[in-house]
Design a protein that fits this description.
This protein is mainly alpha-helical. 76% of the residues lie in helices and 0% in strands.
Length: 106
């Protein structure tokens, strides 16, 4: 499974987990709905741990930053003639901004 697919799956699982928690916190939910939600929550958390997907907190930003840096290192584009430290810092800053923006949108 590619890194991008794993991240997409992780985001989907986190969304499902948030919906299950919303059912558990709903005072109008019946006893059977709560029991089903607890079982589903346990399965989703187990699946997240097995897949090695971040927890949905600050570690997501670090995960995305590492993935972005890894992707930038694998880049097959030829280096630009004027590639000094400011260009490198610009690319790192852009990667950090994207990771933070994604983390805030969740």
């Amino acid at each position: 499974m590619a890194t991008d697919d794993k991240a997409g799956l992780g985001e989907a699982l986190h969304r499902k987990l948030r919906r299950v928690v919303a059912i558990l916190e709903d005072p109008a939910a019946s006893e059977h709905e709560r029991a089903n939600a607890k079982a589903l929550k346990a399965r989703l958390e187990k699946l997240l741990k097995q897949r090695g997907i971040p927890n949905g907190d600050w570690s997501d930003v670090a995960f995305r930053l590492g993935r972005g840096l890894k992707k930038a290192a694998k880049s097959t584009a030829p280096p630009r003639p004027k590639d000094d430290w400011t260009d490198t810092m610009f690319r790192i800053g852009r990667t950090v901004r994207r990771a933070v923006k994604k983390a805030r949108s969740e």
